[in-house]
Amino acid sequence: MSDPRQHIMPVYRPPEEAFVRGEGVRLFTEDGTGYLDFIAGIAVSSLGHTHPQLVEALKAQAGKLWHTSNMLRVPAGEELADKICARTFADRVFFTNSGTEAVECALKTARKYHWANGDPERIEIVTFTGAFHGRSLGAINAGGNPKYLEGFGPAMPGFRQIEFGDHDALDAAVTDKTAAVFVEPVQGEGGVRAIPEHCLTGLRELCDARGALLIYDEVQCGMGRTGQLFAHEWAADAAPDIMCVAKGVGSGFPFGACLTTEATGIVMQPGSHGSTYGGNPLAMAVGNVVWDIISDPGFLENVRRVSGTVEQALKSLADSHPGKVQGVTGKGLLTGLRLTDAPKPVQTGCRDRQLLVGVAGNNVLRLAPPLVITDTDVREATGIIDESLSAWEPGAEA
Ligand SMILES: *Cc1c(COP(=O)(O)O)cnc(C)c1O
């Protein structure tokens, strides 16, 4: 029998199971087996699967209008941009289909800003090791991960990467050639690492002092995931000039956005940038509902509360498996266990027990559950992780 996957470009290696239905925090296979989903399509399904209000919004829009392109007005997009700008640092929004496209818009806006302000030499984008910004050519150059760059031609000029947490290197790297410092307030793929809050404030001060812009990639850590609407809001006086969002903003419907201040975004004028699908009526119908639910202070309060439950449970797992778990990492519901060896076998062990989790960096078992999990879900998940850790022999598998 031929492999049903044979014509899929094999850049991913998914496990055997195929899921055909989702409800809340659970995914189901064809035969009805339920799995607890603690990765949510990598921090995407923020309101869980088939949330009734989102299903209703999408169905209603599907019967009205799907697409016009941005050559015509999209009223629901104007409405969502208004809400975003009323609640955040931002004054302007460009809607995209993905996180990578939000990143491209951010990089282009940063360079154009300096160009328009008579400083065309300021093109450098400074990033940190462990960064992940997507898979376009611009995004892999910003991410700087040699594994993702290999084979795709020469490294692009204008990107400079320094060691995560190296303040001296940062101080030396931000010069009169720097367009922007570009960071994830909580690194996702790089190993679920949070930048300390006072460092974000320091980064803002440094950028101001040197005339560089500050860009946050909150594609993974934003939209309520850490218990604030955006992760940088934990830090005082650390608002960016530009911010990329995606993943959780659509809770499974693909869209993203690049947010900017007035002073920065003003350089993007007719013809500067574009997207055929970005912010189309289907995405905006869903996006408005997701925004209304997650930006509610009571919703975020509950994320912080359940994050506390998760943190407690993970700490006790770390205590009970000292030779296997080095510690707990991350922030809020973008969290994980730093293991003493590669995390894949533990991920597989969890899946064999009907729990889906992720991995990140070299040794992190990553959790990014829907933001609507309950304490009962947390107990079930951590019970399964506990069993999987017990069954795991570090170093035993390749
Ligand atoms: C996932 C991710 C991206 C890329 O988003 P896509 O929607 O896959 O293009 C960019 N930055 C961060 C921090 C991400 O986690």
Characterise the protein shown here.
- By secondary structure, the chain is an alpha/beta fold.
- It has two domains: 4-51 and 297-391, Aspartate Aminotransferase, domain 1, CATH 3.90.1150.10; 65-294, Aspartate Aminotransferase, domain 2 (3-Layer(aba) Sandwich), CATH 3.40.640.
- The protein is 37% helix and 18% strand.
- The protein has 13 helices and 17 strands.
- It has helices spanning 40-43, 52-62, 75-87, 99-116, 137-143, 146-149, 167-173, 197-210, 262-265, 281-294, 297-320, 344-352, 375-391, and strands at residues 19-23, 26-29, 34-37, 92-96, 124-128, 159-162, 178-183, 186-187, 193-194, 213-217, 242-245, 256-260, 325-331, 334-339, 355-356, 358-360, 364-367.
- The strands form four sheets. The chain has a seven-stranded mixed beta sheet with strand order 4-12-11-10-7-5-6, with helices on both faces.
- The chain starts with 18 loop residues before the first strand and ends in a 7-residue tail after the last helix.
- It binds pyridoxal-5'-phosphate.
> What is the SS-derived class?
alpha/beta
Multimerization status: single chain
The main pleated sheet reads as:
7 strands, mixed
What is the assigned CATH homologous superfamily of the largest domain? Answer: Type I PLP-dependent aspartate aminotransferase-like (Major domain)
Q: Are there runs of 5+ residues with pLDDT below 50, and where?
A: none
Relative helix content = 25-40%
What is the terminal separation in angstroms?
Answer: 29 Å
Write down the secondary-structure element order. EEEHHHEHEHHEHEEEHEEEHHHEEHEEEH
Please tell me the CATH architecture of the largest domain by its name. 3-Layer(aba) Sandwich
- What overall geometry do the principal axes of the alpha carbons give? globular
Tell me, rounded to a whole number, the average pLDDT: 97
Q: Which strand order do you get reading across the main beta sheet? A: 4-12-11-10-7-5-6
Strand content: 15-25%
Task: Please tell me the total number of domains.
Answer: 2
Q: What is the number of beta strands?
A: 17
What is the top-level CATH class of the largest domain?
Answer: Alpha Beta
CATH topology of the largest domain: Aspartate Aminotransferase, domain 2
